[in-house]
C-alpha cells in the first residue's frame, strides 16, 4: 500500500485531522494506497511555510533559481521509469504514453521555465518631448495556489509550478485527489535538487476541502487552475471579492474540421490520435469531427477501420494503445452518454462497450466510440464528455461548418485540415478558440500562449504569458527635465 503524504516546508507529513482518501487503480479497480484529505489547517501550514520562504526565494538570483529548476528537470528524467509507472498506475494511461509523453513533458516544463526566466524582460518607454522615462517592474506576487486535474497529472501540475517558482513565487499546490502519486514523488526530487524548504508545498485532498481552502485563503494572492468549467465558476466567484489574480484553463468541446483537399493519410492518422489519445481524456482532443460531404462516406469507413484496430488493454502492457478510464465515476459518466444515445438523431457506429481485460475484470475499460450525429445541437455535440467518444457529421460549405464549429459554449482549440491557404487563414481567424491547429494536432511549442475563450477559461499559460501572470506589474515614471 502506498502512503501518500503532504509535502510542507520540505517535510512529508500526514494530514492534521488524519482524514484519508482511498487511491484506486483504474486498471483493476483495487485500492492501492491512501492519500490525505487535507483540511484548511494543512493549507494554513503550507501557506505559512510558503510565506516564510518567500522573501529569500524571491531575492535568490535568477541564475540560482534557474539552476534548481534545471536540476529538478534532470532528476525527473533520471527517474523516468519510476514516475511513468506511478502515473500509469494512478491514471490508467498506457505506460508507453506516460513514458513518452507525460513524464518527459513534466521535465521539459521545469527545463523550459528554468531557461525562460533568464530571458524574461520588462519594457521601458522614453518620451523625449516631456523628458520622461517609464519603466516597468515585474515582481513575484508572493504565495500563489496551483490546482490541477487528473488527466495529465504531473504534466499539468508542473506546467503551473515551474513558471510560478521561476518567477520567484512560493507555491501551495494541490494535485487532483484522483491522481496524487507523481506529485508526491516530486517532493523528494525537489529536496534532492536543493529547492529551499517551503518554496513549494503540496497538499493533497478533495476539491471540496483542500482545493476550496486554497481558493478561500485570504493571503494566497493568485490561483492558477486547470479543471472543469463548473469548478472554474466556483473559483471565479470565490476569488473575485478578494481580487485574486486568476488563470482558469477549463473544459473543451473541440471541432476537428476536415476538408476534401487535405492530405488524407496524414489527417486520418492524426485524427485517430486527436480523438482517442489518453482515452480521449485530453482537453485538446477533437471530439466533434466535421467532414466535407464529398469524402464523408470514405472517411467513415477508413476512420472506423483504424479505430477498430486500436488495442484496449492493461496500461502496463507495452502493446496497449487505450488504457483504462481514470475512475469508476468517470467511466459511468462516459457510459451514460452512450447509453443515452437518441436513435432519432444519432447512431453508434463503433465501440462504447465495456472491455473485459483478462485478469483485470474490475478495471474501467471502454472501447473507443464513434457516433454519427445529425445535428450539432445534440447533447453529444454540446456537452464535454472527456472520454473515448467522438461524433461525426458531414458539411457542405465553409460557412456551414464554421457556424457549427463555433456554436458551442466552449472555445479551447480547433483543428482544420485543408491545403487551401486562404481557407486555413480564414478559419484561423474566425474560429472562436484560443488555439487553432492547421494540418496538425497538439504540436506544442512551450513559448506559445495556451488557453481558451468562452467557457474554456480566461488567461493564458505558456511562455512569457504565464511569467506575466505570475508577476505583479508596476510602472515607474521618472521626469528628468
Ligand atoms: P475538476 O474541476 O473536477 O478538478 C480539477 C481540480 O480542481 C482537482 O484538483 C480538484 O480536486 C479541484 N477542485 C474541485 N473542486 C474544487 C473546488 N470547489 N475548489 C477548489 N478546487 C477544486 O476537473 P477534473 O475532473 O479533475 O478534470 C477534468 C476537466 O479538466 C475537464 O473538464 C477538462 O476539460 C479540464 N481540463 C482542461 C485543460 C485545459 O488546459 N483547458 C486541461 C486538462 C483538463
Characterize the biggest β-sheet.
Answer: 7 strands, mixed
Shape summary: globular
The counted number of beta strands is: 23
Mean pLDDT, nearest integer? 98
Blueprint of the fold:
Elements: E1 2-3, E2 6-8, E3 11-13, E4 20-25, E5 30-36, H1 40-58, H2 62-78, H3 80-91, H4 95-119, E6 124-127, E7 132-140, E8 143-147, H5 153-166, E9 170-174, H6 181-193, E10 200-202, H7 207-216, E11 222-226, H8 229-239, E12 245-249, E13 255-258, H9 264-276, E14 288-292, H10 293-308, H11 328-339, E15 346-350, E16 369-373, H12 379-382, E17 389-395, H13 398-406, E18 410-411, E19 413-417, H14 421-430, E20 435-438, E21 453-454, E22 457-458, H15 463-469, E23 471-479
Parallel strand pairs: 1-5, 8-9, 8-11, 9-10, 11-12, 13-14, 13-19, 14-17, 16-17, 19-20
Antiparallel strand pairs: 2-3, 4-5, 6-7, 7-23, 12-22, 15-16, 18-21
Helix pairs in contact: 2-4, 2-6, 3-4, 4-5, 9-10
Bound molecules: nicotinamide-adenine-dinucleotide.
Amino acid at each position: 500500500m502506498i502512503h501518500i503524504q503532504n509535502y510542507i516546508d520540505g517535510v512529508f507529513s500526514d494530514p492534521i485531522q488524519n482524514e484519508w482518501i482511498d487511491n484506486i487503480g483504474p486498471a483493476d479497480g483495487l485500492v492501492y494506497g491512501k492519500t490525505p484529505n487535507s483540511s484548511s489547517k494543512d493549507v494554513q501550514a503550507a501557506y505559512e511555510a510558503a510565506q516564510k520562504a518567500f522573501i529569500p526565494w524571491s531575492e535568490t538570483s535568477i541564475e540560482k533559481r534557474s539552476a534548481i529548476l534545471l536540476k529538478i528537470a534532470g532528476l525527473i528524467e533520471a527517474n523516468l521509469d519510476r514516475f511513468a509507472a506511478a502515473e500509469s498506475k494512478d491514471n490508467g494511461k498506457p505506460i508507453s504514453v506516460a513514458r513518452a509523453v507525460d513524464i518527459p513533458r513534466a521535465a521539459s516544463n521545469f527545463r523550459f521555465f528554468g531557461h525562460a526566466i533568464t530571458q524574461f524582460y520588462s519594457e521601458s518607454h522614453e518620451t523625449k518631448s516631456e523628458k520622461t522615462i517609464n519603466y516597468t517592474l515585474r515582481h513575484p506576487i508572493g504565495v500563489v495556489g496551483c490546482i490541477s486535474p487528473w488527466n495529465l497529472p504531473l504534466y499539468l501540475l508542473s506546467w503551473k509550478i515551474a513558471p510560478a517558482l521561476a518567477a520567484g513565487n512560493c507555491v501551495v499546490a494541490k494535485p487532483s485527489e484522483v491522481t496524487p502519486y507523481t506529485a508526491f514523488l516530486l517532493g523528494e526530487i525537489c529536496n534532492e535538487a536543493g529547492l529551499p524548504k517551503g518554496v513549494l508545498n503540496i497538499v493533497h485532498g478533495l476539491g471540496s476541502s483542500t482545493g476550496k481552502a486554497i481558493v478561500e485563503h485570504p493571503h494566497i494572492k493568485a490561483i492558477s487552475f486547470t479543471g472543469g468549467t463548473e469548478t472554474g465558476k466556483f473559483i471565479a466567484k470565490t476569488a473575485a471579492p478578494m481580487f485574486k489574480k486568476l488563470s482558469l484553463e477549463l473544459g473543451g468541446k473541440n471541432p476537428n474540421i476536415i476538408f476534401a483537399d487535405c492530405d488524407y493519410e496524414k489527417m486520418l492518422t492524426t485524427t485517430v490520435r486527436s480523438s482517442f489519445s489518453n482515452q480521449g481524456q485530453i482537453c485538446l482532443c477533437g471530439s466533434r469531427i466535421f467532414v466535407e460531404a464529398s469524402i464523408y462516406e470514405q472517411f467513415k469507413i477508413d476512420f472506423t477501420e483504424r479505430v477498430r484496430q486500436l488495442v484496449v488493454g492493461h496500461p502496463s502492457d507495452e502493446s496497449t494503445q487505450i488504457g483504462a478510464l481514470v475512475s469508476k465515476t468517470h467511466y459511468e459518466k462516459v457510459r451514460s452518454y452512450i447509453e443515452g444515445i437518441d436513435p432519432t438523431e444519432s447512431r453508434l457506429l463503433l465501440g462504447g462497450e465495456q472491455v473485459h481485460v483478462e485478469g483485470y475484470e474490475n478495471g474501467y475499460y471502454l472501447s473507443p466510440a464513434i457516433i454519427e450525429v445529425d445535428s450539432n445541437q445534440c447533447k453529444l455535440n454540446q456537452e464535454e464528455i472527456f472520454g473515448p467518444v467522438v461524433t461525426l457529421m458531414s458539411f457542405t460549405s465553409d460557412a456551414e461548418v464554421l457556424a457549427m464549429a463555433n456554436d458551442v459554449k466552449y472555445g479551447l482549440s480547433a483543428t482544420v485540415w485543408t491545403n487551401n491557404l486562404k481557407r486555413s487563414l480564414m478559419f484561423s481567424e474566425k474560429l472562436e478558440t484560443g488555439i487553432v491547429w492547421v494540418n496538425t494536432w497538439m504540436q506544442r511549442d512551450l513559448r506559445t500562449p495556451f488557453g481558451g475563450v468562452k467557457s474554456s477559461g480566461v488567461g493564458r499559460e505558456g511562455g512569457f504569458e504565464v511569467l506575466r501572470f505570475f508577476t505583479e506589474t508596476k510602472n515607474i515614471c521618472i521626469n528628468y527635465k
